[in-house]
Amino acid sequence: MARPALVKTGLRWLYWVHRWLGIAACLLFLLWFVSGIVMMYVPYPSLTKAERLAGSTPIDWSRVAIGPADALRRAKQAEFPAELRLDMAAGEPAWRIRGKDGRVALSAVDGRPLSAPDAASAVAAAQRFADGAPVRHVEKIHDDQWTIAQGLSWARPLWKISLADDAGTQLYVSSTTGEVVQNTNARERAWNWAGAVPHWLYLSALRRDGAFWRQVVLWTSGPAIIVGVTGLWIGILRMRLRRRYKNGAVTPYRGWMKWHHLTGLIGGLFAITWMFSGWLSVNPFDWFARNGPAGGPALYAAHAGADFPALDMASLAARAAQAREARFGWIGGRPVVTLASTGDTPPVMASPSGQPLRFTQAELAAAAQRLMPGVPIRQTILLTEPDLYWYSHGHDRPLPVLRIIFADADRTWVTIDPQSGGLLSQQNASGRTYRWLFNALHDFDLPFLLANRMLRDPLMWLLSGLGIVMSLSGIVIGWRHLAKSYRRSAAKRERMAMGRTSIASTSPRFDRAEGDQ
Hints:
The protein is an alpha+beta fold and 517 residues long. It has helices at residues 2-39, 49-54, 68-74, 119-129, 186-192, 196-199, 204-207, 210-238, 255-280, 296-301, 313-319, 361-369, 429-443, 447-450, 453-506, and strands spanning 83-89, 92-99, 102-107, 135-141, 158-163, 170-174, 180-184, 325-331, 334-340, 348-350, 377-383, 401-406, 413-416, 423-427. Pfam families: PepSY_TM.
């Protein structure tokens, strides 16, 4: 007898949890399903590398009088920085250095530190970026809805410059280096209020505190998973495929309850996987260590000193006359200059003397070996087409790439760009597991789906549509239940009040004199 009673109690709790958590969760579900559809077509604004290069001007090599070694010395760099870049700033070539102590910008003409731009300088930088578009408004801000990311902390405060163009463009210029670091337009901003902002719970007031925002995401998506699991469980319990209900129905419900039951049965599993993968997006409990060995770029460079050979400016100018950016670094102990023109033009790799430079696969593998000393290389693959772990979706990933697989306990993979020699990524087994549990479940970013948008988009619309109907019906059911509970409570309070009044009217009065009774 104890077992049936226990089962009955368990079912009562199952229904109770789903009902009361679901009343709030269905609002979030609806928000996430609708905003997810929007994000398929309008991502969160970001300044891409192609946009940054397109907004730059070619380097004036004839005016470069300060070489890379001199720039590092003037910037007081004790070791080779994470980034050493030459481009144009305010009409003159400039060195941009990102070291351990922050970022430094120096004139490549005379070596002076570039001063923090005032409003006029910021406007000039924005107009150069936007081909001279007129300016409508200028203000200095710390951050706003589109610059809240912690990756822009180094650039703050920012000059926000609104252009008087048809697109409603807004550019953000760093007050420390004078670079354009973000761009948005009116269409992006409007759609993102229905897309990324609600989907990520990305309100600037909330996102400013990264740790608190992470907890909010965890404690909203976590209970949502419970609602999904309990709902699917109840849905299966109430479904009858053999001994059907009246009129041959598989569900006992009618109206909104019927829609909620059926859409939950069909789309409930996908809703659960979306909620679960969304919960994983903030890496709860630090379950996933997605990167490879610490200090990878420095080990790959195999050169720690704050120096670089002298440049042959004429040869470099001849090699890439339209280069808008030159990056300086080391690969396996060899100095490398990478020249980039526009986003659709492959970078040119050269030596400091301006001669063309290419690394063999064996040389790149030897440089990668420094990341994992003493660990044998299991396999080297030249990847010429996207695969399950290297594909472009929400980020730019070039092809071909060289994948080097190590035989270590973490099963580390290192990915290198054979054209530039650049270290693109380090990924261990944990990171590849995360790729399946988050990216695959949340984005459906399998190569055959990404290559066939006519298949992927209808699939996402269908599943999201099921989720929207499930959420809407849940909201209606929840509202009706709350209204019914409120009316029941109000009636109970009214009966209790009437009972107290009746008792009071029939009780003897002791507040009057005896002779008045």
